[in-house]
Each structure stands twice: as C-alpha cells, then as structure tokens.
Amino acid sequence: MTRFTVNGQPVHYRMDARTPLLWALRDASNLTGTKYGCGAGQCGACTVHIDGAPARACQVTIGSIEGAFVTTIEALSRDRSHPVQQAWVAENVPQCGYCQSGMIMAAAALIEKNPDPSDEEIDQAITNICRCGTYPRIRRAIRRAAQAMRQDSGIDAAPPPGIDPADAARAVPALAPPAGKLSDR
C-alpha cells in the first residue's frame, strides 16, 4: 500500500508497489491528462512533477515515491491560467496535442527553475518528443511564458473554441474509478 499526495489530495493506492505511476494516475485516479506514449521514458508524454521536478511517470514506481507530492497537468492550473498554458495557446503550439500535457509540465518545471532560459537551455531541458515537429513554436511559447512570469503579467490567450474552461478543468476525485466499461471510453 502506497501513500503520497496527488494534486494536493492524499492518496492511498492498494496496488503493487512496482506499478508505474502513470498507470496509477490514469487507471486508479482517472487523471488521464498524463499520456502513455512509449512506456520507455523517451517521449515525455507522461511527464508530471514529483516534488516539483519533472519526471517520466512511466518510469517511476508508486512504491519509490512514498510521501512525495505529485502534480499532474490537471492541477497545473484548473482554469488554464498558468503562463505556460496561455503561451501554448497564444503561440498556436498544439497540432495533434498528444504530447502537449507532458511538454507543458516539462516547460513549467524548467521556467520555475530557470526564469530566463536560452534556446540552448530549453533544448537541453525539454527532451520530450513532439511528432508534429512544433519545436520552434514550443521554444517561442516557453520564452513568452518565462517573460510573463518574470514580469508577473498575463498572456492574452483564450481557451480553445467550444470548450468551457470550467468543464475542461473540473476537479476529479483522486481515487474515483473510471466510469463505464472500457469499450465506452
């Protein structure tokens, strides 16, 4: 039995301690913003913060983070007001969108650690893979978010059309089982 905190909520997983954090988050907590990409820690689609540092959730076992604080994309900012999320929209970064939650989490951790990263520092820190190849827009978005955070100013970027921010950011109970059968999802 493993206990730690996910998005500010204490959790107690009754799963094998060798279970990857990715599957505990997705299957037991229904936090599906953390994506499965490669399962080998290479692509970064599953990036979350563990005690404030970026980590590939597919490579971290729940038993190895007893007592830790985990933050997923769902809790970065529930209303999408985090400067990285706003810069992503303003710079039109997403294409297919699959890598975006992991990329945003990696970028947020970078800016927290280094509030004025150079392109070289961005390239070294953000090793996530974007199969759509939006790397120039990703760098611009990271620089834009970093500037907004340094100046404590917002970024004028609306949420994607047709999505009410309240719906997109609704709170999910930490241990709620997935609804319906697998074929219904």
What labels describe this entry?
Ubiquitin-like (UB roll), 185 residues, oxidoreductase, five-stranded mixed β-sheet, globular, DNA polymerase, domain 1, 33% helix, alpha+beta, 2 domains
What would you say about this model in short?
Residues 1-76 form the 2Fe-2S ferredoxin-type domain. By secondary structure, the chain is of the alpha+beta class. Helix content is 33%, strand content 11%.
Describe the structure.
The chain has 185 residues and is α+β, with helices and mostly antiparallel strands. It has two domains: 2-76, Roll (Ubiquitin-like (UB roll)), CATH 3.10.20.30; 83-160, DNA polymerase, domain 1. 33% of the residues lie in helices and 11% in strands. Strands 2-1-5-3-4 form a five-stranded mixed beta sheet, sandwiched between helices. A hairpin with a 2-residue loop joins strand 1 and strand 2. Helix 3 (83-90) packs across helix 6 (135-150). Residues 169-185 have low confidence and may be disordered.
Shape: globular
The main sheet comes to:
5 strands, mixed
C-alpha Rg (nearest Å): 16 Å
Measured as a percent range, the helix fraction is: 25-40%
Strand order of the largest sheet: 2-1-5-3-4
Beta percentage is 5-15%
